[in-house]
Specification:
With 295 residues, the protein is of the alpha/beta class. It has ten helices and eleven strands. Bound molecules: NADP nicotinamide-adenine-dinucleotide phosphate (NAP).
Length: 295
């Protein structure tokens, strides 16, 4: 069997178009333009590239993008003061603080300071708690993207056996909560799991969020399963002497057994920004007492 490739780029582009349609409707019917503030501390080149893409796509979707670039040496006090100003600014519906933050800053303290209604990353404990208890919440973007990709193959995940490898607060745990909400039967595996290959082989839906290049082998995949690879790992290229990006799944072998699989790059990655736009739109609707958007 050769797996169907789940085209994350195309699905992300479709999602951004849906967001843009809703944003245009908001502007036309309610004179509301959602605003996303992105806070970048220091000059991490990868973060700068990522923040640049976010800005471009926010503007393309018809939203306002406001960037705050702070020096690497900024104090926690000054960063928290900026967050307080953004919380109070009615033109801002979403606040995203690019992680990681420099050592002098307690990232959890910064996340806790963001107004939960503007927490478009979905990392605030209130949103995490709401998600865990089945209440409406702003949900972390990468797991939300994973669900959209899985549902592009199986519109109903109800009753399917889902295995999530990884239990981080930003991917594994919220993904498991979203899968429970979809009525999947969920196993969360991690570094202490016994016989991980056997656990993975049970999965109709296999999600890899480990951060280890090609760790999930082809013969760990149940024939016909849907495989969603969250991993982004940079490894030396055997041919060019440069580096290349691979996922957490051995894509070549896994795609011989899976029913459908996400490539890396071009799978989950593009969905993260698309879902950030979805969350910003949702926040803007909620802030103006409007019903949730149709996306
Ligand atoms: P993380 O915080 O480092 O968590 C990794 C998880 O993998 C942990 O729960 C860890 O278990 C588990 N793990 C590590 N080694 C393992 C092993 N040998 N067997 C089983 N489980 C193992 O990573 P993360 O932030 O969730 O990110 C995971 C991957 O996704 C990374 O490659 C990251 O770059 C990527 N990512 C991509 C996007 C995107 O937009 N596509 C967004 C976020 C992250 P323990 O808890 O037991 O230590």
């Amino acid at each position: 069997m050769t797996a169907k490739i789940i085209d994350g780029k195309a699905i992300a582009a479709e999602t951004r178009v849906k967001v843009a349609v809703e944003v245009a409707r908001l502007a036309r019917d309610h004179a509301v333009v959602p605003g996303l503030a992105v806070v970048l501390v220091g000059n991490n080149p990868a973060s700068e590239v990522y923040v640049g893409s976010k800005k471009k796509m926010t503007v393309e979707a018809g939203m306002k993008s406001l960037d705050h670039q702070l020096p690497e040496t900024v104090s926690e006090h000054d960063l928290l003061a900026l967050i307080a100003r953004l919380n109070a600014d009615p033109a801002i519906n979403g606040i995203l603080v690019q992680l990681p933050l420099p050592r002098q800053i307690d990232a959890q303290k910064v996340i806790n300071a963001i107004d939960p209604g503007k927490d478009v990353d979905g990392f605030h404990p209130l949103n995490a708690g709401r998600l865990a208890t089945g209440l409406p919440a702003l949900v972390p973007c990468t797991p939300l993207g994973c669900i959209i990709l899985a549902k592009s193959i199986q519109p109903s995940l109800s009753g399917l056996d889902a295995v999530v490898v990884g239990r981080s607060n930003i991917v594994g745990k919220p993904l498991a909560a979203l899968l429970i909400a979809e009525s999947a039967t969920v196993t969360v595996a991690h570094s202490k799991t016994h016989d991980l290959p056997a656990v993975c082989r049970r999965a109709d839906l296999l999600f890899a969020a480990v951060g280890r290049p090609e760790m999930i082998k082809g013969d760990w995949v149940k024939p016909g399963a849907t495989v969603i690879d969250v991993g982004i790992n940079r490894i030396p290229s055997a041919t060019s002497g440069k580096t290349r990006i691979v996922g957490d799944v051995d894509y070549g072998r896994a795609s011989e057994r899976a029913g459908a699989i996400t490539p890396v790059p071009g799978g989950v990655g593009p969905m993260t920004i698309a879902c950030l736009l979805v969350n910003t739109l949702r926040s803007a609707c909620a802030a103006h007492g409007l019903p949730p958007p149709a996306v």
